[in-house]
Amino acid sequence: LEEITPKPVQDTGNILKQGYLEKRSREHSFFGSEWQKRWCVLNKRTFYYYANEKSKQPKGIFSIEHYSARLAFHLRKDSRKRCCFELICPGKRTYEFTAPSPAEAEDWVDQIQFLLKDLSSLTIPYDEEDEEKLYNDVDSSDSVNTASHNTTLNQDEPNIEMEEDDIYEVLPGEEPNKQ
């Protein structure tokens, strides 16, 4: 696991979404759980939350990798219940938030889900059985009988280029274009 270093709001890098959200605190008070206003910043892999937008030190940071985001109307009973969402990861803390509006809550969830899809697409699962099923229409003598199998595109292979004239048909009575 890579270390996540605390950063001032201005230095969090490639910010994809930011804004004030209410975050439910972990410690429940005598009157039930408390919601605190926090400036939240989402970048490519990390969710930061600060006391306000000018804070130098985040109140909390976590990697969103392996989390999932969803709307969570059950978190509140008041008029703001349609503004709630949560970030969940099995075996880790669940983070609960209230956005200023239902549309804003949906936007946070959409942005996080988009990022998570992007993060998971960086690792492409490889299963040899599936590979053989996909290419079973290839002539059996050419099928996968090499010991190693390259699953990435080889960027170093030379490009085979045809001469320009070869791709155009010269019609009778026309001069071929020479450059």
**Helical content band:** 10-25%
Question: So, the CATH homologous superfamily of the domain at 15-26 and 33-121?
Answer: Pleckstrin-homology domain (PH domain)/Phosphotyrosine-binding domain (PTB)
Gap from first CA to last CA: 57 Å
Mean pLDDT: 76
Strand segment tally = 7
- pLDDT < 50 runs, ≥5 residues: 128-165
The outline comes out as elongated
Class inferred from helices and paired strands: alpha+beta
What would you note in describing this structure?
The chain has 179 residues and is an alpha+beta fold. The protein has a domain at 15-26 and 33-121: Pleckstrin-homology domain (PH domain)/Phosphotyrosine-binding domain (PTB) (PH-domain like, Roll), CATH 2.30.29. The protein contains two helices and seven strands; from the N terminus they run E-E-E-E-E-E-E-H-H. Strands 4-3-2-1-7-6-5 form a seven-stranded antiparallel β-sheet, covered by helices on one side. Strand 2 and strand 3 form a beta hairpin. The longest helix has 20 residues, at 102-121. Residues 128-165 have low confidence and may be disordered.
